[in-house]
Amino acid sequence: MIVTAYATTGEQWSEEENERADAILRRRLGELGVWIERITGFDPATGHAEPGWAVEIDLATGVSLGREYRQDAIFHVEGDRLAVVSCAEQGVASVGSFRERVLPAATQALASDTQRLDFS
Fold this sequence. Notes:
Structural class: alpha+beta
Radius of gyration: 14 Å
Distance between the termini: 17 Å
Largest sheet: 4 strands, mixed
Number of strands: 7
Strand order of the largest sheet: 1-3-2-7
Number of helices: 3
Strand content: 25-35%
């Protein structure tokens, strides 16, 4: 799963609010005792990038966390399949290949310690 705690679409939170919610989510994920990796989603159409967490949890836990952190949706990755999962209605929309959205290593260097993904 890929989950975030930053402001949802259409909302504006201060950088401090975003970072505080992200830190709380990171601690919460750590308490689950599962694999966690920082990942940054990127929409090339709008230029919007949002840090989140790739985490090895089941779909129900991911949706629950998404709701708790006021997210419209989370991302589900299974094999190479990427899907957007609504936190409100639990609807799933396939987006396509996950691997095709991971940018090359040279581009990742620009993103420092994060991975930039195209979720459009």
